[in-house]
Amino acid sequence: MVHLFVSISRFTLIIMFAIYTYDCFAALKRKMSEKRQNRIYHRQNGILYLMLLNANAVLFAVTMDFRILALLGAEMVFFAVTLAIYRHFYRNASRSLVNNMCMLLAIGFVILARLNFEQAIRQFLIAVAAMVITCFIPVLVAKLKFFNKLAWLYALAGLAGLAVVAVAGSTDYGAKLNLDLGPVSIQPSEFIKIIFVFFCSAMLVKSTEFVHVVKTTIIAALHVLILVISRDLGGALIFLITYLAILYVATRQPGYLVLGLASAAVASVAAYFLFSHVRTRVIAWQDPLSVIDNEGYQISQSLFAIGTGGWFGSGLYQGMPQKIPVVAKDFVFAAISEEMGGFFALCLIFVCISCLLMFFNIAMQMKDLFYKLVALGLATLYGTQVFLTLGGVTKFIPSTGVTLPLVSYGGSSLLASMVLFAIIQGLYVLHVNEGELYEDNKKKQKRFN
Predict the structure, then answer these.
(1) Which residues lie closer than 8 Å to 402 by C-beta, 6 or more apart?
(2) If 0-12 CB within 10 Å is exposed, 13-18 middle and 19+ buried, where does residue 185 land?
(3) What are the backbone dihedrals phi and psi of residue 116, each rounded to the nearest 5 degrees, phi first?
(4) pLDDT tens string 265-286
(5) In sequence order, what are the beta bridge partners of 179?
(6) How far is CA 188 from CA 157, 177, 192, 411, in A?
(7) Parallel, antiparallel, or unpaired: how do β-strands 175-181 and 184-186 relate?
(8) Of 402, 397, 403, 401, which is closest to residue 285 (Cα–Cα)?
(9) Phi-psi category of 116—alpha, beta or left, where left has phi over 0 and alpha has psi -120 to 50?
(10) Which of 118, 146, 234, 318 has an alpha carbon within 20 to 30 A of 426's alpha carbon?
């Protein structure tokens, strides 16, 4: 009976998530009435709750662990409060964006409860704390006007934070990523990525003269260099790509972009010869089955999991994702593919793409160049991180040890991702407020004339 319930559940989850994904793109249409948009958003909210109920009912039916029901209740309250905050306190916030954030969090909660219930509880508690912190960010972004004046403070904070990790950080899978503060371990680079975007934007909005660009590039290169010294090459690549995107949009000079990409190519070759763990990942990427007992074990198990799940998945608790090392962090997408199915995994990718499109759309609509560059930088940062994660899991590129935002286990990654979404919401609120102010002024001018 339980097996039948699990089998039916995987199909209902796929159908509901497919409808949700379709609505993500339907809501982006320009010529749509507000009433129809609201219907889409309400349908997405309903699907979110139904998917949570469906998946957690399966988890409970298999394990008979009443803690799952308690966590489900807490999650339902959490999402209800989160949606209410953005609906009532941020009237001009993007409901598409907040819906997507909640859906990605929900998928993360479900798969983590399946993989490791203790980790799922910690992830949920961090998400609650992160929401308390980040719910104030949109109003700060929309109201405060001095963010573009703190360029050197951003640089100092970023370089100092990365340097501390390079000197005193703990080594994890060949790279220095974390700072251990008693029982708590944090990954400063997750937050410095966001500070880095503000630094680059603040510098390049002042001037795009060659000398100023050189100064900015030197500071940006120092960030990347410290990450390379720490052997956090995935983070270094994200910083580099983000900087090149901001630099190109700010200067409109293709030469800078070509030079940056060429430098990245040379640095990648150098990293291959300098760092043994980079060579290990490249070997595992080229032919994982030939070294399945050593370097290729993780990626091989990931590919086995994705292939075993097929299009419709094996169902929650019917696969073997625990055979993948670090499955809750770097390879969570493989676990989702195995048990929830290839169709579900594709929908997850499209939801991430819809988030990215909204980020870029907000960047294009911003009138202030500083905020335009910030939105563009955050969009590039998010898109690059998603690409590196999915590319590594599917053997499209060598694994970089990067987490999937809002889905993978990790407190620093989760908090930083929610901060990123909150900043984008703040920029969206600022844009809408400016548009409303412009329309009000036009109406007043007409009445005056």
Answers:
(1) 234, 235, 238, 330, 385, 388, 389, 392
(2) middle
(3) -160, 105
(4) 888 888 778 777 777 778 888 8
(5) 186
(6) 11, 8, 6, 11
(7) antiparallel
(8) 397
(9) beta
(10) 234
